[in-house]
Amino acid sequence: MLEHTVNINLAWLMLDHAKPDMTLLQQTMPDAFAIANEAADLKTSALRPIPSLGEQGEKLMAYLHLQSRKIDILFTTILQQQDDPTERHQTHKFGAAGCVVQLAQPIEVGRFARLKMFIPEEAAAVFCYAEVISCDLLPDLDVYQVSLLYTVIRELDQEVLVRCTMHLQTQQLKARQTGAS
Fold it and tell me: Which helix (H) or strand (E) is 67 found in, with range?
């Protein structure tokens, strides 16, 4: 997991709620989440062959990156409208398998939540279901550190999280190296 703060929305399911499944995910996923990551995936696959075009390919690639950035800005704006301030929390850490948040109240291990994660630096957002796998009091901070494991997530969204964490980790490493120099 990467130590990084991103906004998430947590909506806790009732304690007696059945374990979420892919059918529930598909029924409850807002359209903006479904479209955004599919568009990002299409962009990645569409740009792969362009460098083989030589110098003209480089110019085309630069132009397409600018156009892609415009689309990313629009998607980020649309996705931010899905952010519910009443459900908003921030991660302490996150990765492709789960995240860690700090909460004022304890949450039962095994409890499920609907989770919306917003990663504006990467123009990405993920909608999934997660399960509490640990809840530990941090007495010095007087908060509970809650670890969540993504239990129902689209493969495409998991790949997005892998790319985001790798890219953000690279940025953190470069920043450390620059700061150490």
Answer: helix 55-80
Contact status, residue 144 vs residue 104, Cβ threshold 8 Å: yes
- Residue 119 CA to residue 87 CA, distance in Å, equals 16
Residues 6+ apart with CB under 8 A from 58: 51
CATH second-level architecture of 2-180?
Answer: Beta Barrel (2.40)
Q: Select from 141, 116, 139 the least CA-distant residue to 129.
A: 116
Domain extents in the chain: 2-180
Lowest mean pLDDT among 8-12, 14-18, 83-87, 141-145: 14-18
Q: What is the pLDDT of residue 41?
A: 63
Length of the chain: 181
